[in-house]
Amino acid sequence: MSRVRILGIGSPSGDDQAGWLAVDTLLACGMQAHREIIVKKLDRPGASLIPLLENASWVILIDAMQSDGQAGRIQRFSQKDWPDYNQGLSSHGFGVLAALSLAQAMASLPARLDLYGIETGSTAHGDQPGIEVRSAARRLACAVAAELNVSLSF
Q1: How far apart are CA 98 and CA 82, in angstroms?
Q2: Residue 137 has pLDDT above 90, yes or no
Q3: Regarding the domain with residue range 4-147, which homologous superfamily does it belong to in the CATH classification?
Q4: What is the C-alpha to C-alpha distance for residues 6 and 115, in angstroms, rounded to an integer?
């Protein structure tokens, strides 16, 4: 059983890669080397996210979000916040919030769950992520590492 799981959610469509970019930064800096931390990139997991939440004490989810904010804005949702969020977190059919709601109903949530959204600009298929989202993903990776008391080497 891993104590901490960091899951970057995305797709290959422009700024929707936000979660992947944050995870790529963590992996490139050796986060996976810590025994109690699992870091994974997920491609639109839908309900298959639920088993990845089980048997962890802390899960950190990072995904793209769509609202009226500026591209690159980072928003954090604690476990008490995300059930009330009705904006467009995740552009996936059965999105992160639906999976979390189902996991909650199944009593499959970890003791601590932190959900981060990175505001997107373009999510057109084939587009590269914008500079604002790339920068936000790096900042968020550094913040996550700091919260875990793990230093990243750049």
Answers
A1: 11
A2: yes
A3: HybD-like (3.40.50.1450)
A4: 10
- Tens-place pLDDT, residues 25-35: 999 887 777 77
Question: Is beta strand 112-119 parallel, antiparallel or unpaired with respect to 58-66?
Answer: parallel
DSSP result, 70-122: PTT-EEEE-TTTGGG--SEE--SSS-HHHHHHHHHHTT---SEEEEEEEE-S-
Question: Using the 8-state DSSP alphabet, how is residue 60 labeled?
Answer: E
> Which three-class secondary structure state does DSSP give residue 153?
coil
pTM of this structure: 0.84
Nearest to 62 by CA among 25, 19, 24, 106: 19
* Class of residue 92 by CB neighbours under 10 A (exposed 0-12, middle 13-18, buried 19+): buried
* 127: helix, strand or coil: coil
* The two structure tokens encoding residue 9: 């959610």
Alpha-carbon dihedral sign for residues 113, 114, 120, 125: negative
